[in-house]
From TrEMBL:
The keyword Repeat applies. The keyword Repeat applies. This is SOCS box domain-containing protein. Coiled coil: none annotated. Keywords: Repeat, Ubl conjugation pathway, WD repeat. SUPFAM superfamilies: SOCS box-like (SSF158235), WD40 repeat-like (SSF50978). InterPro entries: SOCS_box, SOCS_box-like_dom_sf, WD40/YVTN_repeat-like_dom_sf, WD40_PAC1, WD40_repeat_CS, WD40_repeat_dom_sf, WD40_rpt, WSB_SOCS-box_domain. Residues 367-411 form the SOCS box domain. GO terms for biological process: intracellular signal transduction; protein polyubiquitination. Pfam families: WD40. WD repeats lie at residues 149-191, 193-234, 235-276, 290-331. The lineage of its organism: Eukaryota, Metazoa, Ecdysozoa, Arthropoda, Crustacea.
Amino acid sequence: MERYSQEQTDGEARVIGELATGRDGVNYQPGGECWATAFAPDESRFAWSCGFRKVVIIPWNRYKNCMQSQDNYDPDGYAISAEHVSIDAGFTVTSLAFGTGTPEKELIPKQRGYWTRFDFTKDLILATGHTNGRIRIWDPYTGKLLLELTDHVQPVLALSFAPDGSLRLVSGSKDHTIKVWDMSDDGNMFKTMREHTGPVRSLSWSPDSKMLCSTGDKQKVFLWCMESFRMLRRLSGHYNDVLDCSFSPDGAMLATASADTRVIVWDTSTGEQLRVLNHTKPATSIIYMSGANGAYVRGVTFSPNGCHISTVCQDGYLRFWNLMSEEDEAEVTGTTLEGEAMLNCTFSPVGGAVAVGHGSGNAVFYLAPTMVPSLLHLSRMTIRRSIGDVASSKNILLPHTLRPYLQYKHW
């Protein structure tokens, strides 16, 4: 872990740490990319796919406290002594995700009449997707291989665990399918969804685990009901392949990043476009419907308080967008080394940092903008989390001016 202490400048994101491979970011070999990074939901661990089959897991809850210092001590003077775990995954890693299970003491006792290979009471597991279509499940504390899932026939580009502790895993592949796996039933694959006509590039669960967003080639953005496994709606508006997606913390919004150089923020209840964040000037047009360009957006992630969106773009910039502002301009930007490619970005679960994976295999941590949300916004998020989409319900009487606010049409 390299650490930085340079001064923050207005409008520029500060680098606060880096996990480095030592490889050249310009002349790197294929297979050495950092295609995925992931934080454990409780921030206890951070997983880094550093290329050439290797995954490193560090104790993030310890390392994050000393990333801005020049030594191995946290702000209280205690040495950072926790060990990292290094895994040779066996195959090139194209995706990864942490899953959190329900603690054993909270489980309803289950009588099983058959032997299982996988202990479904694990509190934390790590899944890795590979170029040969396999998915491997690991113990993040020891690096032990727990289970292997084999049903995809092409690279697994996206993995995501349900946030409700059920250990349901969804996987998206170049074989055009989404598969749903039940870790509590020994990794049984019980559903395949086939609406995509090209590679599935990203998957994201809604915070209440009732919806799933999948994105892929040919402008595809689908919202699925994860109780009936039927498509709720298709979101149309992108001009090119859609590479990433992220739900807001209350599930009311969805952000999608595309090769058309734009990020679109959607209302998940109606499919309406709420915001369009352009990464080029002038804004893109239908010309980006085919072919590559130098400013396609590779990654997008919501901040934990729902006030910011972070994006990484092919032009070499990390951008932070302030949704509380009426201006659709990036509030803060961060740059990469010359020739490096930013491949993905992930907000830490409690905020404060964003991890960015690079083409050289490096993972760089940037200091995220801080903001104290308004009481109105906190109230809105609380209502949406506890009740759902009250604004679209005809059975709930709301003041005329409050309804657009609850639908995120006003900030």
